[in-house]
Amino acid sequence: MASGTTSKSVLATWPAEEALYEVVNGQRLELPPMSVYSTWITSRLSYRLGPFAEQQRLGTVVTENLFILDAESDLRRRPDLAYVSAERWPLDREIPREGDWEVIPDLAVEVISPSELFEDTIGKVAEYFRFGVRQVWLVLPREEQVYIYDSPTSVRILGSSQELDGGNLLPGFRLPLAHLFQREAGNGAPIP
Fold this sequence. Notes:
With 192 residues, the chain is of the alpha+beta class. It has one domain: tt1808, chain A. It has 4 helices and 12 strands; from the N terminus they run H-E-E-H-E-E-E-E-E-H-E-E-E-E-E-H. The chain has helices at residues 8-13, 36-55, 118-130, 177-181, and strands at residues 21-24, 27-30, 59-63, 67-70, 75-77, 81-85, 107-111, 135-140, 145-151, 154-159, 163-165, 174-176. The strands form 4 sheets. Strands 3-6-7-8-9-10 form a 6-stranded mixed β-sheet, sandwiched between helices. A two-stranded antiparallel sheet has the order 1-2. A two-stranded antiparallel ribbon has the order 4-5. Strand 8 (135-140) and strand 9 form a beta hairpin. The longest helix has 20 residues, at 36-55. The chain is globular and about 45 Å long.
């Protein structure tokens, strides 16, 4: 068999991955798949944000975690990346080993894939704020922009030549967006 190919018998026995989903009014809704580039951007952002929050003892960063926003109406959302401050979930409190996390994140990050409808994402932004999320970042990889929502109607748009900062949520966090959206510096060297 040639390198890089997979036989049909191996594919037939490969376990099917469970599709990612959210729950809205008790109904399980499958999420559209993320593109490779959107997944890569989410990983890069998590790689930068997670260690920063941990080293500064500010809180916890998670990816693809299902949060219970409203238990009464059974609303559970899964931001691509989220930050929960130590204020909302103390660092010495154990994170649940199973099930969904019963805490409202301080920051919800959605990385937009080509398969996602912008209108659906804007609806999520309003929901996040309605249930207590303090800030929402929409990352648009194709446009190389980040929309920073401080409320459903207050947004700042940053381009790839600007710097993303953590503001009051993550004081001291800074990330040039050129580093988020590019693999290499102009001279071919990897971006730190």
